[in-house]
């Protein structure tokens, strides 16, 4: 093997330990330790602690709060502690855990080093090169790529010593890496590169993702991990830094095993309650006669925030709600009417397969939209010029400063009133969906590598897949595909509150495409031939749920007059559901629920509000089954809910799609929240109060350094000492025959590996085995859930359990 190949292979191996980081404008939640998922959870967090310095388990104070609140069952905790070999009362053990944490922190060395100097220099140039449209003066020669651009400016940077490799940087980044590593044996290359990539995991995770995504910024200003490492190693060589790998074992907290016992007890307490409730409902479901045709069916995203609004929608009338991943199964790239660029509108584990754009269908409405948009664009351009030009800004302040001062005061003191004014103004500007339709028909043209639109055959497959996953056999007069988006002001993390299944973008466009597909007469005819008896009077439409205010906006421009009364009644009931859901959310925010709608609107409009909504905080469960399993349960907005009917899925294809898609994505979301909570300094992003956005790609803490990789404290804590999110690994509960689940897992090693390594748990409520629950252990073996909760007895295989 050539030296170049060996270096590239070493970089690839080392890069697996760095989690991918998406840009802040399309924030995608992901497991920060995704590169360690091939190892047992306990081993993974130990190795990550050695490499990244992050804690892997909740603190003693967090466990103490959970005990005080009754979130950990004392009997379950006693069993877990005894099994781990611990004696004594929980409070004493928590004190021991806290003392060990204090001792570990006291031993840390915070002295400045040559490596810290390299970090400062490198992050300065990374922020300049990777800027995505914020900088008015661009770093020179970016088109040539990061290493070439850095090579050109390094000689003019007074902070870079003219020593070592950096004094005469080779043209090739691999050659530069080789020059620095040549004094080290090849066996040390991977550990050396791992440590260097882990030194700035935010920046390297962003580089890794941008290079893999190959989007417009990457194609215009390319960067690669080998280019980054070449610059970093050259800088380290220039300052004489020691590159020898540490060779130290993980600095494991001696009470980690104790923390694992507390964590298992906390998770088991939540899981046992969830499984018990689902199993009881499973029996009731078997005894029920079913219901007639609903007035309307609404399909929401599986997002935990949907659980709240779904309960309240169902309480207002004869409505069915269903859960489906919010991209509605269409892996598409979307470009809005006014958008300069397209965005991915599907989960990050999928590649877009179609390019969808909005096309105008109403000339008069389009013209009115364009006039107002032109006025706004001109105003924005003036402001941008003023911001960039100090001389004109001073003159403008003399004449217009007082008006701006009043505007700032109003937005600060009465944000709700300002929102009302903007809404009134917006009513004069038509939304895209009022005069545009998604170009979903196949155009036999391409946008880049993607075909524009979909063929009839593709439309049929997407619709049929949705109906099969949802277990639909009956259709209401109105069927609403409801995407979701958030509303927030002055919030770098606004995309983290949008639809994760749409890559941190609003889900409305996907809902509109799915509704258009299902209204296509050619598609409906083929669906009827495949056994989906869609009545002639069924109309599909799209909507979008505002998760901050709980308003559901229906895109109903094409609904026929024959359904006007149905539509009016649905809108009335959605308004009622909004009031009740908002009251529930307001209470969770610690505010008065009697004025909940105005309070949620204030939070959405207040540019000083650090916590406009809770997002997916609290997520802990994932229930896969018919809605009747959970419709009578208040799951407190903590569970992802995916509709599934095992009786309509004899081959297990729908279940397989859920396991390989939504289950993996929800595990990513769950671990992002988990690690951001247990060690926010390393895996989160600290307080919003001290954050600074950089280059439209991420945030710093303070005025420089590494990109922060996770969620801010305000998304996780109600106050400094009041945790809101409970850091638990995901508990999945599936309503299906255990043998079918086993067959699916047997065909998908990656999913089984997550379970075997304890990154999440899985419990099956088997409707064919007297509605008994079985808990997954490892290697495709199960135990009855009651036995698992008691003492973790010897496991048995799925077929044997199913036949008992």
SSE diagram, text form:
Layout: H1 3-15, H2 41-52, H3 60-68, H4 74-83, H5 90-106, H6 114-129, H7 146-153, H8 173-181, H9 189-199, H10 201-213, H11 216-220, H12 225-238, H13 256-287, E1 296-300, H14 304-316, E2 319-323, E3 332-335, E4 343-345, E5 354-360, H15 363-388, H16 390-413, H17 415-426, H18 432-435, E6 436-438, E7 446-447, E8 450-451, H19 456-470, E9 478-485, H20 508-519, H21 521-529, E10 539-546, E11 552-555, H22 564-588, H23 596-605, E12 621-624, E13 639-642, H24 653-660, H25 662-678, H26 680-683, E14 691-694, E15 698-701, E16 717-719, E17 722-723, E18 730-735, H27 738-746, H28 749-756, E19 760-766, E20 772-776, E21 781-784, H29 785-791, E22 796-797, H30 798-803
Parallel strand pairs: 1-2, 1-9, 3-5, 9-10, 12-13, 12-18, 18-19
Antiparallel strand pairs: 3-4, 5-6, 7-8, 10-11, 14-15, 16-17, 19-20, 20-21, 21-22
Helix pairs in contact: 1-8, 1-9, 3-5, 4-13, 6-12, 7-12, 8-12, 14-22, 15-16, 16-17, 17-23, 19-21, 22-23
